[in-house]
Amino acid sequence: MPSIFITGGAAGIGLATAERFGREGWTVGIYDVDEAALAAVQAAHPDWITGVLDVREPEQWERALADFTAHTGGTLDVLDNNAGVLVAGDLDEISPAAVKAQIDIDVLGVTLGAQVAFPYLKATPGSHLVNIVSASAIYGQPGISTYSASKFYVGGLTEALELEWEKYDIRVVGIWPLWAKTALAENDAKSTQTLGVRITPEQVADKVWQSVHPTALDRRLHRTSYSVGLQTTVLANISKFSPNFASRLVNKFLSQ
Predict the structure, then answer these.
(1) One of 134, 136, 150, 191 is an active-site residue; which one?
(2) Among residues 127, 151, 181, 191, which one is catalytic?
(3) Domains detected in the chain
(4) In sequence order, what DSSP letters do the residues of the chain get, joined into one string?
(5) pLDDT value at position 182?
(6) Is 226 a catalytic residue?
(7) How far are the Cα atoms of 107, 143, 232, 249 from residue 255, in angstroms, in the given order?
(8) Scanning 31, 81, 101, 204, which has its CA 20 to 30 A from the CA of 151?
(9) With a cut of 70, which residues of the chain have pLDDT below it?
(10) Facing residues of 199 across strands?
């Protein structure tokens, strides 16, 4: 049975992804810092493997992955680096603690996950590392600047590891949603009002599923990015094919 380990999996996109893969008969691991939410997940899905994981702590990563792979014969087909936090507000308005939390979880946590999971992914032919990026990494977003910058990092890490790990038959991909109907979207960022919150966690989960079942063309083109929703695709194409001043104007409009 193939296996998927999901961080921040007790709610939102992570939980929707677990349900998507669980329906397909996968061995599902849900790891989160929210113990109450984990207990609810375990009660609803007793066949899933759950555990506490603070993604900022390498020792906790090591324990969690050892625990999960003890149920899979030491293999890991997919690591879904899903855990993340967002604190909205201009940089001069949010606290240093809020800045640190976003960088620690959204940047350090993702990187540690990839590093600690590497031996397990390497031991599993055709494995995948899935990083949840964000449409906010298409062009830097005021009002969520630290979060946006952290997702630029995740996008860059995804591209770098796709090249670095190709020789080990580990495919590395990034999922690029816009605002989804989760707790992260419950903020005062202007773009939630101008663009709306239209994407469901289930749509993101479907894209994760698609990304780890690539077409022959995806493999031939070494596809690393999977946009979620029409709005994300349009914004990404504007950024790619328009001059920088045009992208700037579009993003200024969306964020003011």
Answers:
(1) 134
(2) 151
(3) 3-254 (3.40.50.720)
(4) --EEEEETTTSHHHHHHHHHHHHTT-EEEEEES-HHHHHHHHHH-TTSEEEE--TT-HHHHHHHHHHHHTTTTT--SEEEE-------S-TTTS-HHHHHHHHIIIIIHHHHHHHHHHHHHHTSTTEEEEEE--GGGTS--TTSHHHHHHHHHHHHHHHHHHHHSGGGTEEEEEEEE-SBSSGGG-S--HHHHHT---B-HHHHHHHHHHHTS--HHHHHTT--EEEESHHHHHHHHHHHHS-HHHHHHHHHHHT-
(5) 60
(6) no
(7) 23, 8, 15, 10
(8) 31
(9) 179-198, 229-243, 245-248, 250-256
(10) 180
CA distance 16 to 247: 32
Q: What confidence score (pLDDT) does residue 185 get?
A: 47
Active site residue 147: yes
pLDDT in tens, 41-70: 999 999 999 999 999 999 999 999 999 999
CB 210 within 8 Å of CB 23:
no
Q: Active site residue: 31, 120, 147, 226, which one?
A: 147
* CB neighbour list of residue 245: distance below 8 Å, 6 or more residues apart: none
Q: What is the pLDDT of residue 11?
A: 93
Residue 229 — φ and ψ, nearest 5°? 90, 155
